[in-house]
Amino acid sequence: MPAEDDKSQKFNVKLIFAIIAAALGSGFQHGYHTGVINVPQEVLKEWLNETYQSSYGSYMDTSTLNLLWGLTTSIMNVGGTIGGLIVGVTANKLGPKGGLFFNNFLVLVATIFMGIAKPITSLEVMIVGRFFIGINCGLNAGLCPMYLSEVSPVSLRGAVSSVYQLVITISILIAQIVGLHYVLGNHTYWPYIFILPIFFAIFQVITLLFCTESPRYLIGVKGNEQKAEQSLKFLRMSDDVSADMTLMKSEDAAVKALPKITLSDMYKTRQLRIPLIIAVVIMLAQQFSGINAVIFYSTDTFEKAGLKGDNPKYATIGIGVVNVLMTIVSLYLVEVAGRKTLLLIGFGGMAIDTLLLSLTLYFADQNDFLPWVCIILTFIYIILFAAGAGSIPWFLVTEIFNQAARPTAVSLAVPTNWIANFIVTLTFPSIEALIGPFVFLIFVALDVVFFLFILKFVPETKNRTIDDIISEWK
Ligand SMILES: *[C@@H]1O[C@H](CO)[C@@H](O)[C@H](O)[C@H]1NC(C)=O
């Protein structure tokens, strides 16, 4: 192991450059396209309605519009699922850096589709564009954290990997600001909302040209030690990278010595089946906690709560700010408070919060004071979510499996998350139209179920070795 004060194990200009090239380029697409559809939704829904009329000769009724709107927002998650499923193949064929580089081709295709949707009056083209950007984001979500952790020295891996999540929350915030009607979220300029991300793709293509491929990939997949050494010399800004080389080679040998574990192996062994169920449920819990309902439809919620004019949109931007701040705070919280505790506080709190939210929304128009309670409850919800449920499931999945089972577990857990996200986003507007504020009661029930599940089954993983955790399920 290299010594603690070894300069090669610290941040340097070139490593930071590589982190920015990878995280800013890909995290931006993921966060921006998640958040972009919310603020200008009235403008976009009207466009869908008008476009439908010019294509099919009649205007839409509310339920068709809700369904089509749900599809436009959620088709991105179908793409994301597909992208997530091909991360492994892409990383093996092109390398993490190569994969990120060529992934920008999908941004180009998606931008063309979404950019021309209005000029050629086609809502189908818009939906196809959202699908392509979804594939791009699914790939980014796998490749980017992989690249970030593989270019970083061991001592920095945790911190650097979380940069991706941080860029996502910041990009959601940027998308919300861009969507304001006097920025781009109006009838004339909204196509530019979907064209703007191309600049981040161009930025990434250019900056990645100056970065090296992941040394881990060069050794492990390509078997090219010379290139791996060159890459490490670049990333560490040091001519002596022998310590890193030795470490990477031994990590690689250790991984290759492990047997390959398939899904059916995992299902058959109790010791692997239980964590597999935990991994899937925790991903479902993250999405079915109601976060997407709150984020995607917050502007709507605030309007229903009685906010007038631009105020609902500012409140939504406030949510974005709180989300960014809490994501930063949560990086410390998980180390201090423990994963299980934060998850329990989060899901218990969200159950109570959504219960109160659905009641206050229902009575909101009878009292001048209640709309403000709605807004406060929404903010508390975001704080509770971002403190634990937002980030913990992603790394909890990696913490409850050993190196041999981890890739298979992750390749099931991540698509589960995208699919759950798809279901919530697709069905929420329709259910909301049907039962109004009581839609949040569904999340109350689910949050209670998840709370009990976590209480009974999820182990605390903080400061514990993987063998110790696994021994619980013997
Ligand atoms: C679609 O537009 C027409 C004409 O402006 C309008 O009457 C109708 O209510 C709109 N449909 C929905 C679901 O908003």
From TrEMBL:
One annotated GO biological process: fructose import across plasma membrane
Any Pfam family hit: Sugar_tr
Segments forming domain Major facilitator superfamily (MFS) profile: 19-462
Source taxon at top rank: Eukaryota
InterPro entries associated with the record: GLUT (IPR045263), MFS_dom (IPR020846), MFS_sugar_transport-like (IPR005828), MFS_trans_sf (IPR036259), Sugar/inositol_transpt (IPR003663), Sugar_transporter_CS (IPR005829)
Location in or out of the cell: Cell membrane
A GO cellular-component term linked to this record: plasma membrane
Protein name, UniProt field: Major facilitator superfamily (MFS) profile domain-containing protein
